[in-house]
């Protein structure tokens, strides 16, 4: 029997067992660590540079920074986040699979509590730490709706994942057709102006013209606005908060409910299917992982390189992008490109892990993955304090390649911290807090002198 202390009453609660004393699935922790560290390869660009300055590299496609950005974009962008989402989906199944009768609540009820607290942490990450690309808020919402899917077969989960991915692609295509319609109306208005130079446009025609011109203007580089963005981000906390607030609102409301919801749902459902097939728990054969690594990366990277020209065209010449394409290839293929690539990367990692290559490295990465929740928020703390004005104020000051020295430093800090911390404690500090809030009882934190194997339950997938 394990005795815990209730944070609500301060009293002791007996036989509350949120964590079964079984071995962790180490391969899941390794993959979490890889995904968590890999996400920073893309996030560092948002932490340290304006979007406009990054797009300028695309408009001037030469030099090492352009090729570095292109390589990161093709190999890792959205792929590591997709893997993170898949692992979170697997974590939902792990959570629901455990007997939690000692807590006095059914597993679905505990899962909802867990997700609601994750939403709170996401709001803190976005509105407190001012990271506008936070994903915890989104994960918290989607996870609540996905727990009934745990009874589906792997094949049914896969079909649901494909279906939601197609919804994402459909919504992207819908938006693209609206852009094409706006451009067609603009052409009609300009043709009318040329034909009848003295004629006056109706209010509707003026709106049609200004609508398209607004879209084009948004896609163009504005040096003054870019400098103003950098200046705002180098200011005090209140100024940065006011500057980031519109971005945070856009990401947590319009973007999420229009597009992001379908992306995350698709990847989580795929992760649930893969977990039921034993993929994440290292149960497939070595040959299977080798084939999945080769096939997944080959297909995913072919799709990524194939879609790259349309991605760059949308940045360089928005009018040409809309007028010359019948399909927004880069966005349309995104759900499937990242799914194949994420499976390929995961298979490659599991293959190397199984073969015992650089075992010391995988042990460190596993520690990072076991503390993925803590490390995710730690990245926000470290990077905002380094780049934003209320910290060291390096925002917009470094070249793209220099950002990756910061990435290496953060990786080193997190691997060392996670390894040392887990020699003394069962959970990461925020994992412990999240569990305690979920179960309404303080969890045992320190490792005993004769430590029992730690738990299988997902910390943050």
Automatic annotation (TrEMBL):
Protein species of origin: Spirosoma radiotolerans
Database matches in PANTHER family: INNER MEMBRANE PROTEIN
Residue spans crossing the bilayer: 80-97, 117-149, 156-174, 255-277, 289-308, 342-362, 374-395, 401-425
Alphabetized UniProt keyword annotations: Membrane, Transmembrane, Transmembrane helix
Pfam families documented for this protein: DUF418
Signal peptide stretch: none
Domain DUF418: from-to ranges: 274-440
The protein, known as: DUF418 domain-containing protein
């Amino acid at each position: 029997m394990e005795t815990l202390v209730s944070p609500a009453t301060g009293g002791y609660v007996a036989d509350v067992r949120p964590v079964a004393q079984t071995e962790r699935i180490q391969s899941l922790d390794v993959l979490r660590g890889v995904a968590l560290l890999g996400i920073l390869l893309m996030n560092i660009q948002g932490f340290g540079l304006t979007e406009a300055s990054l797009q300028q590299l695309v408009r001037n496609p030469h030099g090492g920074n352009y090729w570095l950005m292109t390589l990161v974009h093709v190999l890792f962008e959205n792929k590591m986040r997709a893997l993170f989402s898949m692992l979170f989906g697997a974590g939902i199944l792990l959570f629901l699979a455990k007997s939690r009768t000692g807590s006095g609540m059914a597993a679905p009820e505990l899962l909802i509590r867990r997700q609601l607290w994750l939403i709170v942490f996401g709001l803190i990450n976005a509105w407190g730490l001012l990271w506008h690309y936070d994903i915890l808020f989104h994960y918290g919402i989607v996870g609540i709706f996905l727990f009934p899917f745990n009874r589906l077969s792997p094949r049914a989960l896969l079909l649901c994942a494909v279906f939601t991915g197609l919804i994402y692609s459909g919504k992207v295509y819908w938006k693209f057709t609206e852009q094409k319609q706006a451009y067609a109306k603009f052409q009609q208005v300009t043709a009318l102006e040329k034909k009848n130079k003295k004629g006056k446009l109706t209010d509707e025609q003026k709106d049609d013209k200004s609508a398209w011109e607004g879209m084009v203007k948004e896609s163009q580089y504005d040096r003054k606005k870019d400098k103003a963005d950098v200046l705002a981000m180098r200011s005090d906390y209140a100024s940065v908060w006011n500057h980031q607030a519109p971005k945070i609102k856009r990401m947590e409301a319009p973007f999420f409910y229009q597009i992001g919801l379908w992306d995350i749902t698709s990847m989580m459902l795929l992760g649930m299917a893969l977990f039921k097939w034993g993929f994440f728990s290292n149960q497939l054969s070595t040959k299977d992982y080798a084939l999945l690594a080769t096939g997944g990366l080959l297909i995913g990277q072919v799709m990524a390189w194939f879609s790259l020209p349309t991605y760059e065209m949308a940045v360089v010449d928005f009018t040409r992008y809309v007028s010359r394409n019948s399909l927004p290839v880069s966005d349309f293929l995104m759900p499937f490109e990242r799914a194949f690539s994420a499976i390929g990367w995961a298979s490659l990692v599991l293959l190397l892990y199984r073969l015992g290559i650089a075992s010391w490295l995988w042990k460190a990465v596993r520690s990072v993955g076991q503390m993925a929740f803590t490390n995710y928020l730690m990245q926000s703390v470290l990077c905002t304090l380094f780049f934003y004005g209320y910290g060291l104020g390096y925002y917009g000051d470094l070249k793209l390649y220099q950002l990756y020295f910061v990435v290496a430093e953060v990786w080193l800090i997190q691997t060392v911290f996670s390894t040392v911390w887990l020699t003394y404690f069962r959970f990461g500090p925020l994992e412990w807090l999240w569990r305690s809030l979920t179960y309404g009882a303080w969890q045992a934190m320190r490792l005993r002198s004769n430590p029992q194997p730690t738990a299988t339950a997902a910390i943050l997938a």
